[in-house]
Amino acid sequence: MSKREETNKFKLFNDPIYGFIAIPSELIFDLIEHPYFQRLRRIGQLGLSSLVYPGAYHSRFHHALGAMHLTQKAVNVLINKGHKISKSEAEAVQIAILLHDIGHGPFSHALEHSLIKNITHESLSLLIMQHLNKEFNGRLDEAIEIFSNNHKKRFLYQLVSSQLDMDRLDYLRRDAFYTGVVEGAINSERLISMLNISNGELVIDDKGLSSVQKFLISRSLMYWQVYMHKAVLSAENMLVQLLSRAHHVAQKDNDLFAGKELKYFLQNKPGKKEFDTNPDVLNSFTQLDDADILAAMKQWKNHKDLVLSDLSERLLDRKLFQIKFLKKEISEKKQKSLNKEIRSQLNISSEHSKYFLIQGIASNSTYVSDKEEIKILNRDGNIIPLSKASEILPLSVYNHTITRPFVCWPKEIRWID
Cβ neighbours of residue 236 under 8 Å, at least 6 residues apart? Predict the structure, then answer.
């Protein structure tokens, strides 16, 4: 191949958040071009949040590139502060963050346990990285070490996964931008400029304390305004119920409309064992995206199964269930009363009514101090965990898990207290 015919692997992405994002190496270019990574263009970052925030159509592809870009900036900041990071380590940590979400299935978190069982998207990301490593002749070895927290320089792992990692810095700023929720916007550049290393750990210079505080406030606001928004919770739980019913129907109806890959997962719902022992399962998973679910729903709304057709039509037409946050879970008596009303109003059986009464618990931990804390580096060289930093607002505001039981049901059914 002549030089003129060779692919130009120096590319720029024009990102609405950061401006131009440069691809830092040929290996990273080839990973981005790989079909496994290109699939992330068809996986929504925020699941069904676009039903509430019309602009929230950005993809996991967007987010992965943004997180890689921030990691590149973080590495440069640390190098400029005198810390040794080799060229191969810099490339490896960028690959680790680039591929950290490659194991997400359709609609991201919404369907994480609806098509597969007993395996998380993080575990799937690792499996896919290992598969890619074989394809790329071991060139992802160091990235996998970082992703798995087995690298000698632990701060590299902390850039990928910690309470102040580049994943969170990107998704908070990006999600705030696309939803228009300005309260969630953070100053990622300021936070990155305050990064440092002490005793092999990632720390924040004490000048960045107020930026960390703003980060925690923004994260808390984004959880309850976007990620745990009542209508989003309703839609995502309805989608889970829909896939549960589709799984049930697929056991009896081999002609249920679905793409080849989606039909396999509906009929089998494989777990870790199947992914570990059968390469075809992982390959099928990497073909799934949001379009498979949406195309199926458009056909299922005309299916003879009443639950499948009803839930599909409601989701496609945005006829979402009513949702109510509660102080405690509803009583058995209340459940029976609602179920009776649902059966009567919708003219369905007790077997079917369970799909129309959804109970769950929304929870959020903004900051967890009993895990690895964000560490503040004082000017005298001492390291103070964030929970002991005197200048910050009391961490009791963020340092506990907020749980809110909720119940969803069709809007045409009247709630009686």
Answer: 47, 48, 107, 109, 110
Q: Does residue 185 carry a pLDDT above 60?
A: yes
Q: Where are the domains of the chain?
A: 12-229+373-399, 321-365+401-417
Maximum C-alpha span of the chain? 77
Residue with tokens 């599909």: 312
Locate 345 and state its tokens.
């109003």
CB 81 within 8 A of CB 65: no
Torsion, Cα 335 337 339 343, to 10 degrees, reads 180
**DSSP H stretches of helix in 185-226:** 188-193, 209-222
How far is it, in rounded angstroms, from Cα 332 to Cα 51? 32
Task: Pull the structure tokens for residue 372.
Answer: 């690895």
70-117 confidence digits (pLDDT tens): 999 999 999 999 999 999 999 999 999 999 999 999 998 777 888 999
Alpha-helical runs (H) found in 81-149: 87-98, 121-135, 141-147
Q: Which residues contact 16 (CB under 8 A, 6 or more apart)?
A: 177
Q: Give the H or E element holding residue 338.
A: helix 332-346
User: Contact 192/207 with Cβ under 8 angstroms?
Assistant: no
The tokens describing 280, both together, are 């075809």
CATH of domain 12-229+373-399: 1.10.3210.10
Check: CB of residue 375 under 8 Å from CB of residue 194.
no
Q: What is the pTM of this model?
A: 0.94
Q: Give the pLDDT confidence score for residue 108 in this predicted structure.
A: 83
Residue 306 corresponds to which tokens in the numbers above? Answer: 């009443």
The CATH class that applies to domain 321-365+401-417 reads mainly alpha
d(CA 324, CA 313): 22
Residue 31 CA to residue 44 CA, distance in Å, equals: 20
Report CA-CA distances (Å) from 347 to 196, 227, 306, 344, 350: 63, 34, 10, 5, 10
Pairing of strands 12-15, 19-22: antiparallel
pLDDT above 50: residue 4: no
- Domain 12-229+373-399 and domain 321-365+401-417, same fold? Reply is no
| 59 DSSP 8-state letter | B
Distances (CA, A) of 168 to 125, 194, 219, 290: 17, 16, 9, 23
